[in-house]
Amino acid sequence: GQNIDQPTEMTATEGAIVQINCTYQTSGFNGLFWYQQHAGEAPTFLSYNVLDGLEEKGRFSSFLSRSKGYSYLLLKELQMKDSASYLCAVSGYSTLTFGKGTMLLVSP
Amino acid sequence: GAVVSQHPSRVICKSGTSVKIECRSLDFQATTMFWYRQFPKQSLMLMATSNEGSKATYEQGVEKDKFLINHASLTLSTLTVTSAHPEDSSFYICSARVTGGARNEQFFGPGTRLTVL
After folding, report:
1. Is the peptide bond prior to B8 cis by the omega test (within 30 degrees of 0)?
2. Which of B45, B51, B75, B108 could form a disulfide with B95 if both were Cys (CB 3.0 to 4.6 A apart)?
């Protein structure tokens, strides 16, 4: 089985940097995903890590350490529209298991 | 990225009726699609894995006779909620996996909001 932990809520101010952590325990690992989900909408893909290290994509970066079962999503230059739930998801051999999501509130 | 569509986006039905939700991969073929359910302020919970040309694989606690899944082609999977009850009201989301080479991505449909009265 898989167990995924991430903080329930975080707050930050516009223009700041925020790091959302995710730890996981899994019986099979085939990559880790981060998704953004606005209320009432389906998740949208942000990043995919399968090897250790940092993947940078614009204002968003994602880091993975397989030995530690740890990942983080780094959001820079926060904007109000970044207020959303951020889901960490671990891919097993055939399925994707989601964490409960971190609700990020960006304030002016 | 790949596009997954879902229809309808919103449905309201009476208790006891059946509702069919379609999930289509528009620009790629998906041998495997996934159906998720999400209750308010909760994460996505995998209901079943839909395999083209074979029976779906259901997660523990999901009634296969209540949630009928058909994956008749490489671009279409359907979820039918039979004899719907108010507790089935939820946000249903499908996704399709794109694999090959370095790719291993899962793209989501826009979701279907089901309200059972």
Report:
1. yes
2. B108
- For range B13-27, the mean pLDDT: 95
**Could you tell me the two tokens for A71?**
């990942």
- Alpha-carbon span B83 to B96, nearest angstrom: 26
Contact B49 A96 (CB under 8 A): no
Find chain B residues with C-beta within 8 A of A98's C-beta.
Answer: 43-46
Name, in order, each residue with C-beta under 8 angstroms of A87's C-beta and a sequence gap of 6 or more. A34, A35, A36, A37, A43, A98, A99, A101, A102, B43, B44
Q: Which helix (H) or strand (E) holds B73?
A: strand B67-73
> What does the pLDDT look like over B1-10, one tens digit per residue?
678 999 999 9
Q: Does B44 touch chain A (CB under 8 A)?
A: yes
Measured between alpha carbons, how far is residue B105 from residues A31, A89, A95, B1 in Å?
Answer: 9, 11, 11, 9
Q: Is residue A92 classed exposed, middle or buried when 0-12, 13-18 and 19+ CB atoms within 10 A define those classes?
A: middle
| N-term to C-term CA, chain A | 40
